[in-house]
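Q: Hi! First time doing this. I have a protein sequence and I read that you can turn it into a structure. Is that right? Here it is:
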Amino acid sequence: MRTSRLALAAVAAVLAVLGGCRRTMEPALVVAAPSYPDFVFPAAPSSLASEAVVALQLRGWQFLQSGDTGQARRAFNAALAENSRFYPADAGLAYASLADREYADAVARFDRVLRRAEGYLPAMIGKGDALAGAGRVDEAIRVLNEALALDSSLADVRRRLDVLAFRSQQDVLRAARQAVDAGRLDEAAAGYERAIAASPDSGLLYRELAAVERKAGKPDRALAHLRKAVSLDPSDARGFVQIGELLEARGEFADAVGAYIEAEALEPGEEARARVAAARSRADLARLPEEYRAIAGAAQVTRGDLAALIGVRLGAVLKAAAGEEGVVVTDARGHWAAPWIMAVVRAGVMEPYPNHTFAPGGVVRRLDLAQAASRVLGLVAARRPAQARAWQSARPRIADLPTEHLGYPAVAMVVGANVMPVVEGGAFKPAQVVAGSEAIDVVTRLEVLAR
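A: Yes, that's right. Below is the predicted 3D structure, encoded as structure tokens:
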């Protein structure tokens, strides 16, 4: 490691100086295994080096590396007593405080050294370590980056920075997640943005930030960050699902289908297929006229509405049963449901009046709905006769509709097939106006039987 080599070289130089001294020195300490191998020996510049202070400095460092910080401090203080300007001994005292985990004192001492000797690498690196020990990780990163800028070959400093960057990232993420749990969403978003600035290639961070922004009611920002997340990590199925959810909320159903298809390709399964199918259904619905989408909330359904419901939801059944093209309907052209009116007429599910009008604005009553539904059942029965025998043979008692009534066969079939149930007291109420919700329920039941 570069800093370790730097320290060893400095110590070797000191030993060489001392080796040439005539003064009798105390025997040097033998340190088999340094207690603090990452500490950088504070070498003295030649302008301050004298035999006495250098000897004391080295002895203090040997005591420090043996784990005896008390003796180390005495030796460093003795060096300062010999020469108060000898800042390497002050750096030695700072390292002794760092060894004793007195981080605030260590930072203060390293700062004092750096005021005397700006750019003194042993003090800069030591200060970075002391700041990290005190939990001031961002400051430590800044100081160590400054040291690296002075000497880019310091491999140990690079290693320290990598460790601190990871630690800082984990601290930021922990704080951001705690802020989310506490409902401090702006603070959480700011934390994630800091984390992303440090790790701009992390798709996970963008996805977590998007989740915060969704909670904060910022769907556009959330969508932008999710798109960034999946661009960085194309295997992020959950990210594609969330994109689909946001696009659906914006009414962009076709694009939502595309996002769900991406998710299904990554994580296939029944849930994924159902999600795609539901989104496709909503996309299809969104392409339909506004009048169609309004049927669900309508207090009363018109013949044009019913034709559209059957034409859209049961189009395959109608297509298989379509008759001659030459059917004449004089009042369908220009109506929003014209294509479906012609489809139900050609299939024989709904009939025009003798004067060739369809009266698309006419109100639908329960008997009208039963007749149309029974004809759909008839089309289904032609394809599945075994399934249809029970419907066709049903003869339920209808309290308000005698068996000789012309509408009874149709009502009996839809009641027997459980497509249109009777109401209070076993009555059918054939003249009751049909609401949009009831019409949709009946067509949905027909869809199930037609599958």
